[in-house]
Design brief:
The chain has helices spanning 14-39, 56-62, 76-87, 175-194, 207-214, and strands at residues 43-44, 107-113, 116-121, 126-131, 150-157, 198-202, 220-229. It is of the alpha+beta class. Strands 1-4-3-2-5-7-6 form a 7-stranded antiparallel β-sheet, with helices on both faces. Helix 2 crosses helix 4 (175-194) and helix 3 (76-87) crosses helix 4 (175-194). The longest helix is centred in the first third of the chain and has 26 residues, at 14-39. It is globular, with a radius of gyration of 24 Å.
């Protein structure tokens, strides 16, 4: 463009104007990127503290189910310890803190938090974001599930048992998965008793609706849910 032929345009100022436009565009792009990062991102958990807590026999003595919680959140360290205790890796061969039939490790732990739905990735000890919906109230029929710190949704990924999405899932296909879920849930119970947290395992779930909101495949089946929070004393 010949800036001398354009009314009101100074050739000397054209490069400065172009520079300002480029900088404005870069600033806008950076702002968008920062917003996306803050609004939806994975959570890298701190390393679990494996040295604290109450003695096992005391934790067993204090283990209980609670149905009344405050709205307070867990700290990231508590969340880290909780997830590792439940289903974390505790050996170099990547076996877990809870047993799994034939070591299939088909149970996935989805975590519903106020800021979204996450999947626990034990290998990296990370919460991978699935969506930014607060699905806590859909994880059960009781009112307390919607305001407690978090709910764990246990999901059996039957593709690890060779089931395709087109195959019908029978109750017998889930027998071992329910047992494996129970092992993990008991670990969560003992951790909560050890750290003065509250929890309760639940089967009262609108599974079809929740599975739809979670975006699960046909060969992923919800087994149970577990509420965890700060006891309301």
């Amino acid at each position: 463009m010949d800036c001398n032929k354009v009314k009101g345009t100074d050739c000397k100022s054209a490069p400065a104007m172009m520079k300002r436009r480029i900088l404005s565009f870069l600033f806008f792009a950076l702002a968008c990127t920062m917003f996306m990062t803050v609004s939806a991102q994975d959570i890298k958990l701190p390393a679990p503290d494996k040295t604290g807590g109450k003695p096992l026999m005391q934790a067993l003595s204090e283990r209980q189910s609670l149905r009344s919680y405050t709205k307070d959140s867990l700290t990231q360290q508590q969340l880290s310890n909780l997830l590792w205790a439940g289903w974390g890796i505790n050996r170099p061969d990547k076996r877990r803190t809870a047993p799994s039939a034939m070591n299939d490790q088909e149970i996935d732990m989805y975590i519903t938090l106020p800021g979204g739905l996450y999947l626990y990735i034990a290998e990296s000890h990370t919460l991978k974001i699935i969506n930014n919906k607060d699905l806590r109230r859909l994880t059960g029929t009781q009112s307390f599930v919607g305001t407690a710190a978090l709910n764990i949704v246990y999901v059996a990924d039957l593709s690890k048992h060779g089931k395709s999405e087109s195959e019908k899932i029978e109750d017998s296909d889930l027998l071992l998965s329910y047992a494996n879920t129970a092992f993990i849930a008991q670990n969560i119970y003992l951790y909560c008793a050890s750290e003065n947290l509250g929890c309760i395992i639940r089967g009262s779930i609108s599974k079809d609706r929740l599975a739809s909101e979670m975006g699960l495949r046909a060969n992923q089946k919800i087994t149970l849910a577990q509420t965890v929070g700060i006891p309301d004393k």
